[in-house]
Each structure stands twice: as C-alpha cells, then as structure tokens.
Design a protein that fits this description.
This protein is an alpha+beta fold. Helices cover about 25% and strands about 25% of the residues. The strands form three sheets. It has a six-stranded mixed β-sheet with strand order 3-4-2-1-14-13. A six-stranded mixed β-sheet has the order 5-6-7-8-12-9.
Length: about 260
Amino acid sequence: MKIATFNINGIKARLPRLLEWLEDCNPDVACLQEVKSIDENFPRLEFESRGWNLETFGQKAFNGVALLSKHPIEDVKRGLPALDGTLDESDEQARYIEATINGVRIASIYLPNGNPRPGPKFDYKLDWMDRLLAHAGRLLETEQPVVLAGDYNVIPLDEDCYDPGAWIEDALTQPESRARFRALKNLGYLDAQRQIKPAGPAYSYWDFQRGAWPKDNGIRIDHLLLSAQAADMLKDCQVDRVPRGKEKPSDHTPVWVELDC
C-alpha cells in the first residue's frame, strides 16, 4: 500500500496539479494538508468521480486537512484531542484528521508553523506538539499499524536544511520543536525517510522566493512516522520532486511510503 503526504497549499489553486499527480503517482492513500477550504466547498466530485473515497476537515482560507483513499475510510476522527484524550473544543484550527484504511491507522497532520517566536504562535505550536505526543502514545497502545503523515513544520536536524544558519532563529529549528519531534520517535515511531536514506538531503519544501527551487535551497519538513507494526512492513519511502517543478506548483512536494500490506 502506497501512502503519500502532500501539502498542496490550496485545493482550488492546485486542483489540476493534484489530479495530475494522483494519476501519475497512483497512491492508495493521499494525506493532504493546507487545503484552505471549508468542507462544503471542497471539490468532492472531482475526486469521487475518479473513484476516490474522501474525508475532509476544513477551515475557510486557512489550514485544513483531508484523506483520499482507494479503500474504504473507517472510524474517522477530526481534530487533535486534548492531553487527556478528550475532545479539545478550544482548538478552532483544522489541522488533524485520522482514520483506519486497509487495517492501518493513518493521520494527516498539519502542525503549526510557530512563527514569529517568541509569542503566542510558538506557544501554540509547542502545546499542539505536546497533545500530539500524548495522542501518538495512545495510538501505540492499540498495537495497530500507525502512520502519522504530514507537514510537521519541523526541520529535525541541520542536514535537513540547505543552510542551517539562515534558519537559526526560525520556529522550525528551535530546540523545543526538535526535542518534541525526537520525543515522538522515542515513543517508538520511525522516520520512514531516514530508514531508507539515513543521511543527506531529502528536501520536501522550497520557498517561492529567492529562487529556492532552481538553487535546490530546500528543507525537509514533510514526514511519515511509522509505528513498529507499520515499520515492519516498510518497503520504500521517497520524495517525489516532479510536482514541484511544474507550472503553478505547491511550495511542498509529495513524500510517499510503501508498505507491504
């Protein structure tokens, strides 16, 4: 089963590119982020007419996540729970959707950026990551294969950035952000990309400014974290750079994992 994560930076703006990529890449599941659309305005028919099952958790003009699947999507949960596992009604941002697909528990995650820092946006990022840690731990207790896929807005290590010095003050590289990402892995989740390519550039994002794409001035912030049960089925994980080089692309490009299940 091929599971991909793709921050599309606006479903309306990227619809032609997304449909083209779905046909070319042919994933079983696509975890989308930053769809920037309320559920009622999501172009469902464009996908359902092509045989896709679809679940969305949208927000007008900002954020928003979705799951596309060739298989039935079951037991859908929208929104990241509070630390104690209850529904967090105070969080109005649409950043997390989770479901079971073909026996695998899959989440599409759009983690807060956190800039500018210090300030409320960075505090929200860290609080959100603490909630994610708590929920990821509960998911492990199910002993079900789990894939946490998405735009984490965390550059885990300096080698995951074309120029670490240029990002030293950014929320994506701060010790607090990186420590929480490591804590996720310490729970028992494996970074799929680094299982296949242990070192070296594996960028998934290039800014629209300053000629970042032609210069390959990228960063690695789109990750697929696998529970032990999912990691046991890992066959491959790759960055698909092709969509980023097309006309009117997202500033992200897809990353996909293939599981033997």
